C-alpha cells in the first residue's frame, strides 16, 4: 500500500511540474506558430488524464473526451513518466501549413515530448544542450 501512495505522490508531482513548466513550452509554440492551436494530453500510469492547451485550441466540455478538434502531431506511448503524451494541433489551421512549417512543428513537438518525459531529477539534454526550465506559467487545469 505504501508503494501505491509513493507512486501516486510521484505522479502528482510530475503533473504539477508539467503544468508549471510545459505550459511555457506551449506558449513558445504559440509565438512560433501564431495561427495554430496546440493541445497536450497527458495520461498517467494510474489512468488520470490531464489536458494543457494554448489559447487557440478549443477545450472539451468533458476532458475524458479529449480535445474536440485537432490532429495528432506526435504521441509517445508507455513512457517512464506518463503512459501517453499526445500533442495535437488544431485541424483547421494545421491542414493549411506548408511541408516546411509542418516539419518544424513536428521537430518542436518532439522536443516538447522529450522534455516532458525526461525525469525532473535530471536536466534534459536535447541535441547536447541543457534545457532552460525558467519559463513558468499556469495551466488550464486537469
Task: Explain how this protein is built.
α1 packs antiparallel against α3. The chain starts with a helix and ends in a 12-residue tail after the last strand. It is globular, with a radius of gyration of 15 Å. β5 (125-126) and β6 form a beta hairpin. It has one domain (2-130). The strands form two sheets. A four-stranded antiparallel sheet has the order 2-1-4-3. Strands 5-6 form a two-stranded antiparallel ribbon. The protein has helices at 2-32, 91-94, 99-117, and strands at residues 38-43, 49-53, 71-77, 84-89, 125-126, 129-130. The chain has 142 residues and is an alpha+beta fold.
Please give a quick description of this structure.
This protein has 3 helices and 6 strands, in the order αββββααββ.
- End-to-end gap: 25 Å
Which runs of at least 5 residues are low in confidence (pLDDT < 50)? 121-142
Largest sheet entry: 4 strands, antiparallel
**Average pLDDT across residues?**
74
Strand content: 15-25%
Broad shape: globular
Beta-strand segment tally: 6
**Helix/strand/pairing category:** alpha+beta
What is the string of helix and strand elements?
HEEEEHHEE
Strand order of the largest sheet: 2-1-4-3
Number of helices: 3
